[in-house]
Q: What sequence folds into this?
DNA sequence: CCTTATAGTGTCATTTCGACACAAAATTAA
DNA sequence: TTAATTTTGTGTCGAAATGACACTATAAGG
């Protein structure tokens, strides 16, 4: 018999923090999953996550687990929903605060810490542990909502990117197609992009222009209040 | 010494569900608070809420506590954020899943169950217990975001209401002023309002037209996908 | 009875949105 | 090598939406 040394007058649920990690490879959105090494759901794929310690908030827990299990240090870890169905974990009552993180996919491709971590696109998802399929669906919904208020795309793209890449990202997240020319002018009007280097030729070329996200301009824009319409 | 009969191998936080209840009296937004009868923060005002039982989800808990403490049975109870700062409760580690509810203010004015419940507007708020002032600020932010996607106003207004009332509600929530005439045409174009009865006079009168929210029309609109712009 | 405040409606200029065509350079195929 | 194709960047133009604004009628208040 194990020693049960933490005792309470009333029953307490366990609390975990899980982390849905989104990446973008230039074409489609990916999710980072970890293959479980222990029961329950041994060998099934799941989101990084773990039990909340008594000296950390759930956000801190999510960041810690993210780092421990994937080596990632992402600033943009944000909770989006708390899943509390009574039987969502077969071991005991576990309530999980689900977070999402947006990372540049290059930061984790060298899987040193992340021996059992792997990127999946949505059309090749393996069966997930626990209720993680539901968590993923909710995460996607929240991301879609958020992209209309904040240019979260720039956390998914490399430092320097092209306009077609940015459009692909928006199309992949929202699941729609945009007119390329209208997307260009809309983005240019926001004035949150800085052109990097010179355009290769005089007027137009097939080599795309490189851009960088301009956080200063974005802060100004956000202060004025705005809405990204798509 | 009390009997501590629920024991675990690892420490578990307590989990509560709190409920920020919004109402609207035709002029300004109100919050329903309950005066605490016990320590800690005895006699301070707080949101209805309580500990999550092992056989209920946090949403069920929020609805149950809401009913037990105010007599309200509101369908629109929705979680919006989980607060997990380590020392937010002096008794023990308590993580709370915060919800908000939108209710018609008339449903609770007869305070039978709610002896210690009282509506407050934002400019006359008493000091709140725990971190409930922070919870309220976050709740307000979430409500503002949501009103742009769903016509939540109708859960706050009586069954039958006037256009000026509806505009006052939007202005109170978003904290801005709209041009009355533009607001009218924008609302009329949505086609989610049904006129109730006849207009008093031939062309214009000072007696406002009564409207009712049309859930069928709204469902159609929502299926098409839409955005309330303000 | 007169003044004031509020309710309803429509106009019009400006801006935005969304469909669309063209030219230049790189890639691919022949 | 040459021609066809793909990709990138930019501008136009009509339709639709936005936002400022004026007028009339009636109820309320003094």
A:
């Amino acid at each position: 018999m194990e020693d049960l040394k933490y005792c309470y007058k009333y029953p307490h649920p366990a609390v975990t923090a899980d982390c849905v990690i989104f990446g973008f490879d230039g074409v489609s959105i990916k999710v980072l999953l970890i293959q479980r090494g222990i029961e329950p759901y041994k060998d099934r794929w799941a989101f990084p996550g773990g039990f909340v310690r008594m000296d950390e908030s759930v956000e801190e827990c999510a960041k810690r687990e993210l780092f421990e299990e994937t080596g990632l240090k992402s600033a943009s870890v944000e909770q989006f929903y708390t899943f509390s169905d009574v039987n969502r974990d077969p071991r005991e009552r576990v309530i999980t605060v689900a977070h999402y993180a947006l990372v540049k996919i290059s930061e984790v491709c060298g899987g040193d810490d992340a021996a059992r971590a792997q990127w999946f696109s949505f059309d090749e998802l393996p069966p997930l542990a626990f209720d993680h399929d539901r968590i993923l669906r909710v995460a996607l919904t929240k991301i879609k909502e958020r992209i209309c208020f904040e240019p979260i795309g720039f956390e998914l793209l490399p430092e320097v990117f092209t306009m077609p890449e940015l459009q692909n990202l928006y199309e992949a997240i929202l699941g729609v197609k945009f007119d390329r020319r209208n997307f260009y002018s809309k983005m240019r009007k926001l004035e949150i992009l800085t052109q990097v280097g010179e355009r290769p030729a005089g007027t137009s070329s097939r080599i795309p222009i490189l851009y960088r996200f301009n956080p200063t301009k974005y802060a100004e824009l956000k202060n004025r209040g705005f809405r990204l319409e798509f």
The mean pLDDT of chain A is 90. Chain A has two domains: 8-146, 158-223. Chain A is about 30% helix and 25% strand. Residues 179, 181-182, 186, 200-207, 229 of chain A lie near DNA strand C (CB under 10 Å from a C1').
